[in-house]
Write a structure and sequence with these properties.
Elements (H helix, E strand, L loop, with lengths): L1 E2 L9 E2 L12 H11 L7 E5 L5 H8 L4 E5 L3 H13 L6 E4 L3 H11 L3 E6 L7 H6 L2 H4 L2 E12 L10 E9 L2 E8 L6
């Protein structure tokens, strides 16, 4: 089990999956990430891609985010995520899409959804990071002043993008977070 680091649900334990099916972001890395985001999380509408059991999105809600859409394709992870949301009374402040990432991006784009924050924690060792950073449909989901955060293994390089500008990187052990904004917008 992992726990919520700060905010309304500080210290509450979250259910996780047995085995190596997901890789929850470590508490220390989540603490650093949300310290970096600061007040930007207050009232934010967030999209959590590759949500796993929901630790990042739940942490955002605990710290004042208004609403989170979780995207996770696996049945086991969505079951645990739904249980976590239910246990914390967060079902009304969330949406859970059991879809693959590309399908979710397409659906959300057709619905005209926009997000203040898009967070993606794709499986390490795959090429999802560069694909997402260079996906103009994802950029279309960012609200004015919105940002994308991409989690990756620290030993890999930050993804390059034709649509997003890398504004900063923070490293916490084996985990790095890259902060992107649409090209031409002000920095972090």
């Amino acid at each position: 089990m992992t726990r919520v680091v700060a905010g309304e649900f500080r210290g509450r334990r979250l259910h996780t999956l047995a085995g190596g099916g997901t890789r929850p972001t470590a508490e220390r890395a989540r603490e650093g990430l949300f310290s970096w985001l600061g007040a930007r999380i207050q009232g934010a509408v967030m999209l959590d891609l590759f949500a796993g059991t929901g630790a990042i999105g739940i942490e955002a809600l605990s710290r004042g985010a208004e609403y989170v859409t979780f995207v996770e394709r696996t049945r086991a992870a969505t079951s645990v995520l739904r249980r976590n949301l239910s246990d914390l009374g967060l079902l009304e402040r969330t949406r859970l899409l059991k879809l693959d990432t590309r399908g979710a991006l397409s659906r959300l784009g057709r619905e005209g959804r926009t997000y203040d924050l898009v967070f993606a924690d794709p499986p390490y060792g795959e090429d999802w990071g560069p694909q997402l950073a260079d996906d103009d449909s994802l950029v279309g989901l960012l609200a004015a002043g919105g940002l994308m955060l991409l989690e990756r293994a620290s030993k890999t390089a930050a993804a390059k993008s034709a649509f997003l500008e890398l504004k900063g990187t923070r490293e916490y052990g084996d985990t790095s977070f890259d902060w992107y904004e649409p090209a031409g917008e002000s920095g972090a």
